[in-house]
Amino acid sequence: GNSVTQMEGPVTLSEEAFLTINCTYTATGYPSLFWYVQYPGEGLQLLLKATKADDKGSNKGFEATYRKETTSFHLEKGSVQVSDSAVYFCALTPNTNAGKSTFGDGTTLTVKP
Amino acid sequence: GAGVSQSPSNKVTEKGKDVELRCDPISGHTALYWYRQRLGQGLEFLIYFQGNSAPDKSGLPSDRFSAERTGESVSTLTIQRTQQEDSAVYLCASSSDRATNTIYFGEGSWLTVV
């Protein structure tokens, strides 16, 4: 079956540090890939997505590139802020319609001033 | 509605009682998911609906848990004979059929079993 593996947390960084959260997946074909974010006390919301190989999703200074050759979708940000403290979830949806989405376990990021 | 709506938002129940949690997905969304999230932990998949049928219910933790969906719309998650370990946030999410489409989450139902 499909699976998503995320870098284990928690991750603690100082403000303005560079962030990478690794995500690799197992799936047949070309799934769509997503990063969701859950801020403290809130629900999950889409951060960015990429729907085909070599696509780059970006939002709020975050980026992730769909790498078919390494089956990866690592999340990066050049300079994190305290407000980026949250839990980040990597996810995939199969390329067949009506396919079930699969989420990673989540990575908690804490950014200190 | 504009988003995924869940009710109740908070529920405190006594151990051994039954509870029902409701989810109203975004209109027209055929896929519906239930997840459980314990405090400070990740998402635990419970069940997936496509229309009114559940092709994947592998995440339901025991036979005390059941879910149904009617009219390709509202879904109810029922927990019978609640236990303290059932205390968690229960999240509902929905999406349309297409693989590229975003999953939208509700705010969750916070369940506390005392």
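Chain A touches chain B at residues 31-32, 34, 36, 42-46, 49, 51, 87, 89, 91, 93-106, 108 (CB under 8 Å).
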